[in-house]
Amino acid sequence: VSATNEQIIGTIxxxxxxxxxDDRDSYVALFSSxxxxxxxxxxxxxxxxxxxxxxxxxxxxxxxxxxxxRRGAPRIAAGEAxxxxxxxxxxxxxxxxxDIIDVMTFADDGRITSLRAFWDMGDMAPLPxxx
Amino acid sequence: VSATNEQIIGTIxxxxxxxxxDDRDSYVALFSSxxxxxxxxxxxxxxxxxxxxxxxxxxxxxxxxxxxxRRGAPRIAAGEAxxxxxxxxxxxxxxxxxDIIDVMTFADDGRITSLRAFWDMGDMAPLPxxx
Lengths: 131, 131
Hints:
Structural class of chain A: alpha+beta
Distance between the termini of chain A: 42 Å
Oligomer: homodimer
Number of helices of chain A: 3
Number of strands of chain A: 7
Shape of chain A: globular
Largest sheet of chain A: 7 strands, mixed
């Protein structure tokens, strides 16, 4: 038994919505109790709700808001998913964006059991003014 | 020490070229001797050049040719990569395509140590006639 495609897409959409609403509680609740977050890949691995909440806080200490936009249909296989997204961080005077590929695994109830985010600081760029 | 971004992009581009040239030897040579291939995620894991070559043969038994097209810049982090591609399979009377996200790890020499391909047969669709 694994999460259904509908559960997986629902979780991904709630993940995006939690960022856009600046909703820390909803973000942390998306993860199973022993979930791991490696965002970006190569940074430390956060495990469980306390560390994942602290990760949220550290990311939001850098930007007044971070909006996510899902791009294209998630690729779902055997209860895992990879999907494209754009993150736009508001730094006050300027907005910067980075395109990311997230890879996620899921529990039977649709919660995220692991997240690995493929992006690099060097890929960040100022958002064009007309975006 | 890990593969450089330049090595990784070079390997990805040779991976695409090997498919487009229908070049089995070049494809198999892209992988380290103990590399694993799970394509798509959830299917069996092939390990080493013999099994990876047999995987190539089984895939090419289904289509007279398979062309790959890289879409967008690979997301590279800590010597791993995730990247978007489109596979177009020529079935004779019809061409079908599927959009894929590949996740790869690499040896110091740039060869692939693991490949996990996120796609599902259900995502395949006939290629529009004008493509």
